[in-house]
Every structure is written in C-alpha cells, then in structure tokens.
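pinging the channel bc i need a second pair of eyes. not urgent but kinda urgent?? the chain im working w is below, pasted from the shared doc
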Amino acid sequence: MSNNIEVKEIRNRNYDEIIKVFKNLSHESLRLRFGARINIEDYVKNLIESAYAIYGIYVNGELVGIGESYLLENNNDTVEIAIEIEDRYQGKGLGTLLLNYMINDLKSKGVKKVITYVAVDNCKCLKLIEKFKPQSKTFRHSYGMYYIEFDLSNISEVKRTQVEKVNEIA
C-alpha cells in the first residue's frame, strides 16, 4: 500500500493539530528534544505565537511531524530549528524529507544560517544532520547538548530517492 506523504508550511497554525504530535511523543523522545519535562500546552502556544515558520509532514492527511524555526534576535538571516516526528514514524525517512523541505524553504526566505541544539545521545538527530553534509559547521558540546551551526549556502540536498524507508510506513 502506497502512502500519501506531504510536507508543507503550516500556515493556519492549528493548535489541536500541532499539540497532537507532541502528545504522541514518548517520554524518551520528549527527553531527547527538550532535556527536561515541559508543559506541552504552554510550549505549543508559544510555538504558534513566536515561530518564524512551522512545517508539517503529513501521512495520508494526518500530521505526524513538526519542523520549527525561530529567527534569532539581532540577526535576520539566522534561524534556530527543531524537528519532532511521532515515534511510530521515526526511522522511516520522514525527518529527512521534513528537514530537506525546511532548508529549501528557509533558503528561499533569505535565511543563510541554521542553528540547532541536540542532546549528545540523540543519535537519530545527529545522523539526520550529517545526511545533508554541511560543509562549514560549528560543533560545540556543553552540558549534555551539542550546539550545531551550519551555513545553508553549501549544504547538500538529500534527494527523495535517497530516503529508503519512506514507503515502509504501516
């Protein structure tokens, strides 16, 4: 059975649709993403109010992953990004599709640099970033987190054909 997969910017910023993704994350996924317990409802309200752009990946019309981007203060060409994919869809190439879409869209909006914070034991996220082969990147370790900064001008696009498991979604 083939799945309909769509990636797009979420322009309506529907609270109920977005919060469902966060509530479907396991405790481990939340720990890897945030490092500590958070109030999901407050986080999603802040996301909707303050994000530069919010992206979604949909499988058969259902939102199963979120991409976040925030403009940095005093710097209009740099954003901080984060990605969340529901556990049942992790490891199937959806994060790659989402990040690829985000990078292309952010470049089209004039963004030149991306930063992200990744837990040192979040191997999936580190592997995801390396798929894009960022040429110039800053990589620092502090308090159990990596700070990663990379230039969008020389980043490799990951072709959809390189996403090997996308059609294995049940």
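so The radius of gyration is 15 Å. and The CA atoms of residues 141 and 155 lie 22 Å apart. — does that match what u expected or am i reading it wrong
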